[in-house]
Write a structure and sequence with these properties.
about 240 residues, mainly alpha, 10 helices, globular, transport, TSUP, membrane, transmembrane, Probable membrane transporter protein
């Protein structure tokens, strides 16, 4: 049963990541925590998401907003060490509770057509928050997703910029985790077993992306955010 669940988690999460640019950590991390210890689930998520970003970077480079990407990266440099300190010192359940409430409130605002104006300062802030969440709970996607949805960013630009940012954030986060928290063989064996499933997900996800219009993409975004917020809220108790 655990093996079947593992296969479904990796396959579906890979399809989401490829077709939307943000699905893997949002879907995979919560469910991998049912099968693995927090350290193992987070590091597997980082490693496999990095593989997906590497595989797609040549296909999406024309959709990347390089100016926003640079500001995200600069902002994340502040957030990354704060995240690992949070992982080591702070009660993760309390962190999940706070994040879940923020995600749910912001998602409801977005569904009510609340919109925000993008700015350089907000780009830096979103990058910092994303960096903090990557090293603390392995989920950089929610702040990016909320920000891009609030600014009504086109799905191509959202996916391209997000995947390019992940290429940096996941690599650095994985290195930080291994150095300061440690790792084990289970992380790498399980990640190796998951690779063929990731490759299948890459292929299917590309097909879905081409067929998904902007309205369907936005609705799917709200569903993922609500799922993430509700899951983190329940998990915090």
């Amino acid at each position: 049963m655990d093996v079947l669940l593992f296969i479904v988690i990796i396959l579906v999460a890979s399809i989401l990541q490829t077709s939307t640019g943000f699905g893997f950590s949002i879907l995979a991390t919560p469910f991998l925590l049912l099968l693995f210890e927090p350290l193992e689930a987070i590091q597997m998520n980082l490693a496999l998401s990095l593989v997906i970003s590497l595989a797609l970077i040549t296909k999406i480079k024309q959709d990347i907003d390089t100016d926003i990407l640079k500001r995200f990266i600069i902002g994340s440099i502040v957030g990354l060490p704060l995240g690992i300190i949070t992982f080591l010192l702070i009660d993760i359940k309390q962190l999940k509770l706070g994040i879940s409430i923020i995600i749910l409130l912001l998602t409801l605002l977005l569904m009510a057509h609340f919109r925000i104006q993008s700015s350089k300062k907000r780009d830096f802030s979103v990058g910092g928050i994303s960096g903090l969440l990557t090293t603390s709970i392995g989920m950089p996607g929610p702040p990016l997703l909320l920000y891009f949805s609030g600014t009504e960013t086109k799905k191509e630009k959202l996916r391209g910029t997000t995947l390019a940012f992940y290429l940096f954030i996941y690599l650095v986060s994985l290195i930080i985790h291994v150095i300061f928290v440690g790792t084990n063989h289970k992380v790498w064996i399980s990640s190796g077993v998951a690779l063929p499933l990731v490759l299948i997900g890459l292929y299917v996800g590309q097909l879905l992306f081409k067929k998904m219009n902007q309205k369907a993409f936005r609705i799917f975004t709200y569903i993922l955010l609500l799922f993430t917020g509700i899951y983190l809220f329940i998990e915090s108790f």
